[in-house]
Amino acid sequence: MTTARRRGILAVVTAIILLALGAGVAFAVGDALGIRTESSAQMDPAAPVVPTVAEPVLPPSFTFDAPDSERVSVALEEVTDAVAAASATSGEAVLTVQIVPTLIATDDAYAVEGDGGAWLIRAGNEDGATRGIYALSNQIRAAAPLTELIGEHEASRLPLRLTDLGAVGVIPDPAEWEAGDDYSHASKAFAAVIQPEPPYVDETALAAAYDDFDGFLRHSLANGFNAVAFPGFVEYVTFDGAAGGPVYTEGDDHRDKALALRDAFAPFWDRADELGMKVFLRTDMLALTGPLDHYLTAEFGSLDTENPELWSVYTAGLDELYDAVPALDGVLIRIGEAGPVYDVGGWDYYSALEVTSVDAVRTMLEAFTGQAEASDREVIFRTWSVGVGAVGDMHTNSASYEAVLGGIDSPALIVSTKYTLGDFYTWLPLNDTLEQGEQRRVVEFQSRREFENFGAFPNDLGPEYQWALQQLLAANDQVEGVWVWTQDGGPWRAGPMSLYLKSGFWQLYELNTRLAAGLAQDADADVAGITAAWAREYFSADPATVEAIVAAMTHSRDAIAQGMYVPQFAEQRVFAIGLEPPPMMWIFEWDILTGDSAVLDVLYSIVRDSGPDGVEAAIASGADAVAAVEQMRELVSQTDASTWHSADIRAAFLDTLDYELDTLRLLEAYRAMILHQGQWHDTLSPEAHARWDADRVVYEERAAEHLDRYEGNIDYPAFNLTAAQLGVERGERDQAMAWFARVLLVLAVAWVVIGMLAARTRLVAKPGAAAARATWIASTRPWRARESTLGMLELDRWLLLIVPAGLLVATRAVQTSFLSWTHLAVIIGAWVVFALALRLLVWNRSPWPVIAAVGGVVMLRCIVTLFALSFTGPGGYWFAFWTDPVLRTVYITVAFALFAWVFVAAGWALAAQVRARRATGYVLAAVGAGLLVPAVVVGSAGLESALTLWNDEMGLLPWGLARILGITTYLEIPSETPWVAAAFGGALLVVGLLLALPWRQRRGAASVPS
């Protein structure tokens, strides 16, 4: 067999191997992306109804004959306040409250008797008595007949009704809301109270916060709640009882601060206890301070959350707290979210994501429940684990729930879970993990829906809440409570400055708080009646006006479900990158209208596949949402203004509907634009492109109007349209980039064809033809690279370098729509370092053979990319990548094989000059340098910063990802990755240099070519 034949066979085998490796990479990429969908079972609540609203009934003026206790007195004050809030009174009456344990002794059951001037509430304990009193006050506020309460009332269906802390201790400072880009989840509650220096507490601010807290407790009790989650834990603990201590050494102000804060807030907890409200300290785990972190690491070698002894430090802290403040009833623990987004700047109290394994969770719960049983307290454990570690999907996966919690049956343990199969989004199924388990269960609800513009839009969740609770109660008799978030969830200062009971249109989402509390007491309650009572209390006593408001609210869910979501996408469960993205991905995390290709292309493909007319049906749903809001506004605007409690509250209602209408019109236009853009990339249809262009004009007009009207408005803030505008700019360039790619493709193919034909035609004598011939031969038969460059003119030699290099730069520029200079700098920089390193290693030998080989393969690699770009530009390129597994696999296979062939061809071309070993060393050293230098640059700049800048320019992943979660955090990319790459590049460089050295042969050894 001739040498040429052997080399040809070896080249074919090498190409096959590289293609196989490329296919492996392609399948690995596809597996990592993991983009798939499955059908999702939707909730099926009853349709909302509008009740017939009766004329308002005036209450009598009451005097009281009741037990002398603070708890009963506060409840009676609520009755007095309700009567004072009425437009007038009708007669006088005596309200007698009797607590007779032998008559009614079941939890908070009560009975009402009376008529006219004498009313009696009987109960077996203070729970029942105060519940009856609050029912009376609520009836008065609803201007409903008191006679409707007559009779016996069973104990509440769910005995634990927990609320968050609302906006207690949060100062409504407009300056903190004006920018609208503070995505911190820290409430900054009590920020004015807690001081960095002794005495650590501002007494004036503390007194104001106490009054704030007392008012919140009174309001929550009237709504039907009997427990409150209070933030903090390590802030109040000295850890003096920790084994092996002290945690805080002498002179450490953490101890003094803990005692000061405990003394400051103990009266808050005592007050709640006095009024019959349980208090649970709400904390993330691990909760840390700097010294505590150091102590745990020193004591146990690391933050080893699977070590029971580590948890003994925390349980000792709980023993200390419960001894000091008996009013505390337990702790509420979350393990799934932690880190800087929840921390308050300047405070040495923080959390860390360390409880990430099944063993760690079980060890933690065994420690905490053991302590709770011994101290007669309770532990509420949240299953919110959001994809972290081995316990990442216990919130939504029944098998994972059982793996984590199965067999833990402590009577002190309560497990708390959101009612939706994921976060608080519309279109998600009911969370079936709430139907299982031996543990006591609590169902979480959110009143101020963070993902649906923080409660700034009307959003009546009553029918959905009722359906969910009824289903769960029928399926699991361990469900014994609710936890209702009146204010919390998501960033506090990135949306409207609506603070519960304090500022903004908080009355709007108060409805969901009332509904959740009412349904917790009676799952069969009349939700339409609760809505009407809410409308009467806050807006108008006039029956026609109340009916109009309730009628408007019946359209509120359709407006949000159709307008803020793309239903054909939202009704599917979507999986990607090992996670389950939420159903509202086009609005990324609260108020950012996204413009990235990953989300929008996948969204389009799911919409397209939803039915024969999926795209147009999805666009029509946006128009339906707009129509729903228009109908809501018409209902409210046609009410008699004189019947409202105040002109301001009516104006607020109309303003919020105007805001919703403007926002949904904006989303309607954006939806049409992105779907028609996807349709163009998918079908290559000029008509689809024309529709996209027309939609773009409409969207840009509405975006300008939206920003002009609402930008800087702290009550009705404009959506963040930065990412969307970046997407529009990229989309506007797609057609031009496609033409650039076509022109470059023709030129590149012409160069290759000239190279193929030059040896057999007169073309070889033309300027540049010899260069084209050399690149073709050297790229396909690199062992002939040296001979192909012999006798070349100076111009041809320089063309060997300039043409491939120019094509590479031009291809990458087109691929990024001339918008990502970061991408160009990194890619071209790596190639330049590679080329310079090779040139230095070749030194006094001719560089033209390796230049011809590398340049030729680069030409072929660019042709593949340009072909992919030539259809509809970079947008079409990425559309195929995200949505077409076959095209993605083929492209990656060929592209990777050609990329790897660059280095094989370079080594093969050099082997003719320096033999195989040294040629391999040259290439490895050059590759190592080409990897090392960019990696060091990226590492020095910071991986998160570099990825953020790159993604902003490329628009592949959501723009908000970096601003809110962090790309590296979300994708679980270690921050040290660039340095690992640099180390690997350095190792390649060293190995390559060692191989490149001329090794001296031992004397007498056989002469073997190297």
TrEMBL record:
InterPro entries: GH (IPR017853). The chain crosses the membrane at residues 739-759, 798-815, 821-841, 848-869, 889-910, 922-943, 979-997. The keyword Transmembrane applies. It comes from the Bacteria. Keywords: Membrane, Transmembrane, Transmembrane helix. It comes from Microbacterium ureisolvens. This is Glycosyl hydrolase family 67 C-terminal domain-containing protein.
